[in-house]
Amino acid sequence: MSASAIDASGAVLDRDTKVARARSWAWDRLPLGRIALRAAALAASLVIWHLLASSRLDLGLVTFRNVPTPAEAARAAWALLHSPKLAAHLGASLARVLAGFLAAFAVGVGLGLAIGRSRLARDLLLPPLEVLRPIPAVAWIPLAILMFPSSELSMAFITFTGALFPILLNTVHGVEAVNSRLVAAARSLGAGNGAILREVILPGAAPSIITGAAIGMGTAWFCLVTAEMISGQYGIGYFTWESYTLQNYDDIVVGMLLIGLLGMGSSLLVRRLGALATPWTGAGAKR
Fold this sequence. Notes:
It is a single chain. It is built from 12 helices and no strands. The two termini are about 30 Å apart. The longest helix has about 40 residues, at about 195-230. By secondary structure, it is mostly helical. Helix 9 crosses helix 10. It has 2 domains: about 10-65, no CATH class; about 70-280, MetI-like (MetI-like fold, Orthogonal Bundle), CATH 1.10.3720.10. It is a multi-pass membrane protein. Keywords: Cell membrane, Membrane, Transmembrane, Transmembrane helix, Transport. This is ABC transporter permease. Belongs to the binding-protein-dependent transport system permease family.
């Protein structure tokens, strides 16, 4: 039995179908009207931001007196783009996120497969993991500083904790959702536990694993920025916090937008790579 020849419903796919699905991507199935609508939504957000910031609106509970306008933020972004600091900040943050995310992906998928397939592993591993899961990234920072000899390792660990649990829980859910008839069919054809895991469980759980990885990537950025604000010397989070302490309000907005773009882009990249790796799931699903 070939795992790549089975879709989510258990139907067998021929080679041409798999190749066609692998080549499909969001833009192939996104109508021009929806693209225009999304562009209009972004433009409307910029207009609202400009109106609130330029009018220095003060509503009592919230004030926009010190919020820079989009034009001021654009000038600050242009200045940062031509600054040598940008490469250092980007390189530091990307390296930390990549290290923490890859470690979380390996551990999360491994533990998720074990918990999803073994009742003993669920009883032994899930209770302590469920206790650790609600702990926010900020609460881990003091202990991480004490545990690791360098701030780089401690920040990578914070990123790891943020990405781990979305990947872990989605993997468990994906494994449990695999059709038991596929497992029985593979076993009746003589497949052992290793072959079933490789040919049935992993392909069936792959969509959930990819979803967890995309969520985990976004969470990793959130946790990394928190860690960099406290213990970093370089990084986008450190740049944003330093801009606040120096009262460079334009740079605060630039840092926030840069974090958002990096998080969105990296999550989309994870989904794209996942779609290419799992053509049997149908990469052309609506987004």
